[in-house]
């Protein structure tokens, strides 16, 4: 996580997990860390086009950043936690969602991008051979199934982000952000996969 805060999810019940997850991903709390990274990319590295991506709870942080900061041109949430279809429906940038077999179903959220003209630049895929957490730092990458899926996911993200960059040159108006100043609001979230956290990153 952004601030290297350890958590022992295996020892907590669902209610405590939900409250802890909401606190860790609370946008006004995480914004300063995300902005610091973004400002470094812009001011030091002189990067002009920035995508935001995160896995697990970082997927919620990435979705929040993409929603409330118009400087991002795309978002990837990889086996996200605390992200629901309503969160995705509020995004107005190309978005990638990738999950394991026990992650929530994000079909409705991804379908909402078709109505925004971003359907060709958004993507959703479930890898049924792995559990939630297959990209986490604790995942067993020596297992060829997990490492193959991880490589596939990184390839998907790079491919779609490349397509967005190319398409922005041809039809920039399609990717224009609303620019409206948005007030942060808490949303109800669904935690759909913590029951198998003991097997996170495992193979089905």
UniProtKB/TrEMBL annotation:
It comes from the Eukaryota. InterPro entries: AB_hydrolase_fold (IPR029058), Dienelactn_hydro (IPR002925). Residues 29-141 form the Dienelactone hydrolase domain. GO terms for molecular function: hydrolase activity. Pfam families: DLH. This is Dienelactone hydrolase domain-containing protein. It comes from Smittium culicis.
């Amino acid at each position: 996580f952004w601030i290297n805060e350890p958590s022992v999810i295996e020892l907590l019940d669902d209610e405590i997990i939900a409250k802890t997850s909401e606190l860790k991903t609370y946008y006004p709390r995480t914004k300063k860390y995300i902005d610091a990274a973004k400002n470094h990319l812009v001011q030091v590295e002189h990067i002009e086009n920035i995508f935001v991506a995160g896995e697990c709870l970082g997927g919620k942080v990435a979705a929040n950043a993409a929603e409330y900061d118009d400087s991002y041109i795309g978002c990837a949430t990889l086996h996200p936690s605390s992200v629901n279809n309503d969160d995705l429906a509020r995004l107005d940038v190309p978005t990638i969602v990738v999950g394991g077999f026990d992650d929530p179903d994000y079909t409705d959220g991804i379908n909402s991008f078709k109505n925004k003209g971003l359907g060709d630049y958004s993507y959703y895929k479930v890898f049924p051979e792995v559990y939630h957490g297959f990209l986490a730092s604790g995942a067993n990458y020596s297992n060829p199934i997990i490492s193959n899926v991880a490589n596939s996911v990184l390839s998907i993200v790079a491919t779609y982000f490349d397509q967005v960059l190319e398409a922005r040159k041809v039809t920039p108006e399609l990717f224009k952000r609303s620019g409206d100043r948005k007030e942060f609001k808490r949303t109800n979230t669904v935690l759909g996969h913590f029951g198998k956290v003991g097997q996170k990153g495992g193979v089905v």
